[in-house]
TrEMBL record:
Organism: Sebaldella termitidis (strain ATCC 33386 / NCTC 11300)
Recorded name of the encoding gene: mutL
Keyword Cytoplasm: no
Record keywords: DNA damage, DNA repair
Function: This protein is involved in the repair of mismatches in DNA. It is required for dam-dependent methyl-directed DNA mismatch repair. May act as a 'molecular matchmaker', a protein that promotes the formation of a stable complex between two or more DNA-binding proteins in an ATP-dependent manner without itself being part of a final effector complex.
Protein name according to UniProt: DNA mismatch repair protein MutL
Record domain DNA mismatch repair protein S5: where: 207-317
Length: 329
């Protein structure tokens, strides 16, 4: 008899969920990015019980009934179809794994309606298997409700941190998405208490809503985003927000360029507040290296470094020749 067997899908989904749904924050990131990929300009996230119960609603494209039922299958995606598409990504999602993974470790309901359809649909799934599908009436868009995250994987559930820790991680993820998706209105609510609210009225207004007046007034625009003055230096690198093609990334190359750009302006142990939006040909980057898609590989690090560093040099060259005058009201 063979010793090797192909795992049952219900087992392989739970294993995959270990990578996609590390914690409530990473789950919320996936759901949020689905809403953004669906073209939503308003997204509301309500979180309860330390992130074990989550409801996220958007006003995006919605799904037809068949798509809704397929959406929780593994490798089911509307975003790519050929292998060339993987290297030409215009969307956050492409793996078709998030809903399959999340639903396999929770009780999920999806309520959705497209603008082309007169009726909406609601699907209920427990541990990834569909329990019920019904017709409902609702607005255009999608609402996904997760209940009892990790209820069928008690070992994973044990690794959840205390509520405040999970909430901090969630807030951090939502803030990073809200900052770059400044034309979308975000609402984040923890146990009925508002945490983040942006109105989707442009980058500067969003910075104001997320970080307050003092930060906005000490920021200046440069070619690839916003650079903070020495008035708002921080004690950690966490306030260097770097995005490549609207994706928040950790990149040593970009971070190095920013720090080198500030050079002598930084005191020891102090770091700048900066928002870097880099746009590059999707072919030049590989976001496929890590399931969380947080690490990117550039096909040419040196070009990226030089692009940012020289824009900063130009900026500071001009800066030193004029008084610090905020160009933002
Ligand atoms: P991926 O985002 O990689 O395609 P997911 O598992 O996250 O995979 O989602 C599967 C599919 O379900 C998506 O490709 C999309 O067609 C659909 N979908 C998921 N969330 C939404 C949403 N909020 N609005 C509309 N469609 C959605
Ligand atoms: Mg997705």
């Amino acid at each position: 008899m063979n010793k090797i067997k192909i795992l049952d899908e219900s087992v392989s989904n739970i294993i995959a969920a270990g990578e996609v749904v590390e914690n409530p924050a990473s789950m919320i990131k996936e759901l949020l990015e689905n809403s953004l990929d669906a073209g939503a300009d308003s997204v509301k996230i309500e979180v309860f019980n330390g992130g074990k119960d989550v409801k996220i609603s958007d006003n995006g494209s919605g799904m037809e009934k068949n798509d809704m039922m397929l959406s929780i299958e593994r490798h089911a995606t509307s975003k790519i179809s050929t292998k060339d598409d993987i290297f030409n990504l215009m969307t956050y999602g492409f793996r078709g794994e998030a809903l399959a993974s999340i639903s396999s470790v929770s009780k999920m309901t999806i309520s959705t309606k497209t603008k082309e359809s007169n009726v909406g649909y609601k699907l209920t799934a427990y541990a990834g298997s569909i329990r019920n599908v019904e017709e409902i009436s609702r607005n255009n868009g999608t609402e996904i409700e997760i209940r009892d995250l990790f209820y069928n994987t008690p070992a994973r559930k044990k690794f959840l941190r205390k509520e405040s820790t999970e909430y901090n991680k969630i807030r951090d993820i939502v803030l990073k998405e809200a900052l770059v998706n400044y034309d979308t209105a975000f609402t984040l609510i923890f146990d009925d208490k508002p945490s983040i609210k942006t109105s989707g009225k442009g980058i500067e207004n969003t910075i104001l809503e997320l970080f307050g007046k003092n930060v906005l007034k000490n920021l200046k625009k440069f070619e690839h985003g916003y650079l903070g003055s020495v008035e708002i230096l921080r004690s950690s690198k966490d306030y260097i927000f770097t995005y490549v093609n609207k994706r928040y990334v950790k990149s040593n190359t970009i971070e190095r360029a920013v720090l080198d750009g500030y050079y002598t302006k930084l005191m020891k142990g102090k770091y700048p507040f900066a928002v870097i939006f880099l746009n590059t040909d999707p072919k030049e980057i590989d976001v496929n290296v890590h399931p969380s898609k947080k690490i990117v590989k550039f096909s040419n690090d040196k070009i990226i470094y030089t692009q940012i560093k020289s824009a900063m040099d130009d900026y500071f060259y001009l800066e030193e020749r004029r008084e610090w005058q905020p160009n933002i009201d």
